[in-house]
Amino acid sequence: MGTVTELTPRRNRRLDNPKSQLGRVYLVMRDAPGWLQLHEIGDAILERFERMDSHAAISARIRELRGHGVTIASREKPGAVGTRPHQYLMMSGSGDDSGGAA
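-> structure tokens emitted (102 positions)
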């Protein structure tokens, strides 16, 4: 007979939990007055929560938020030659998609 591993159900993740990376990214994006680049999101997290999250982690949490049904638009911002910086904006629940590719 094989071994049975009992899994405990995951606690429901609250998107507004500032103790988690996901929560910090969500809260900064939710409260942002406009488009933000990854470094601006990171700066806001550091200022607001005194935590330093890497750009790679922030990008991953943005993808995770999309998986939770949060609409986050992204667009390329004109940058130096050879660069393609992106900006991100959490869209309101109204379905406004004027911000480019999501």
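The chain has a mean pLDDT of 82.
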